[in-house]
Amino acid sequence: AAALRDAGMEVIYTGLRKTPEMIVQAALQEDVDAIGISLLSGAHMTIFPKVLQLMKEQGIDDVLLFGGGIIPQSDIDELKRRGVGELFTPGASTYDIVKYIREWSSTHRVMA
Length: 112
Fold this sequence. Notes:
Radius of gyration: 13 Å
Strand order of the largest sheet: 1-2-3
CATH topology: Rossmann fold
Number of helices: 5
CATH architecture: 3-Layer(aba) Sandwich
Mean pLDDT: 94
Helix content: 40-55%
Low-confidence stretches: none
Number of strands: 3
Strand content: 5-15%
Shape: globular
Number of domains: 1
């Protein structure tokens, strides 16, 4: 979160151990362009699909959902197939993460 803030992005940090419902509610309240989730618990195949489902139900499925953590490549492939954006693994540079968000935003969001 700090690296994104340092890159000039507005970051709403909701804290640890938030439910998918809490994450999507915060995204709705803050009118975000992207949701980033860092998962180290191994629950990525549960959390990301649930967040995607709730985003669709709330009409914010045009918001980027991306994340990172210790996620096997086969799970990354499946989550991307389901609609999750980029998933960064340990060692990913903050430069690459910032670049990805900026590139996604420039092609998917209308800048005011």
